[in-house]
Write a structure and sequence with these properties.
The chain is of the alpha/beta class. It is 46% helix and 12% strand. Strands 2-1-3-4-5 form a 5-stranded parallel sheet, sandwiched between helices. The protein is globular.
Length: 196
Amino acid sequence: KIQTSYDRGAHVPPPQGWSDADRNRGVSFIGSPYDDRAQFLSRLSQAGLPVVISGAQRAWQRALTPAQFETMFREGELESDAYREGIWRSKINLSFLTRSNQDEFTHKSFEIAGCAGFLLVERSPGHASRFVEDKEAVFFSTVDECMRKIDLYLPDEAARTRIGNAGRERAERDGYHNDHQLSLILDRLQSLRGNS
């Protein structure tokens, strides 16, 4: 089974000295409104949390009410450098499993970690085996737990920075990047050729 992974050339930490003074996105989600994400993010926003969504405009317009869209959506689709910088500019980066894909983990989690972003991700065995909870990433299972974690970490820049850096170190050390995953594939192909 191939693990999704991040691009070491594209998903890199922010410049030295980056801080909340450079972050204009509070609770950030960059992606698509799969599953119940629109309802989940709307509940966070209705609770008074500073939710910012970026992604395909038409898809989010269909998923949200006009008032919700006006409140949360900005910047449209973020790709390449803009995607990476969107992660850098986010105090909290949300990541969700796509249940329709039967995800155990998601590539976005590894991209956020590669960028040393603070990762608040849906709890799963796949994520739990790849990040130490509350040290390398923070997990949630319900919208209420997610709100509690946001309330805890949003005002704590030092903790977010520490966890983001630790997540980056884990991702690099354990090879959650394309280079390592490709090497595993090539090694496997070589072993299959050797057995034939």
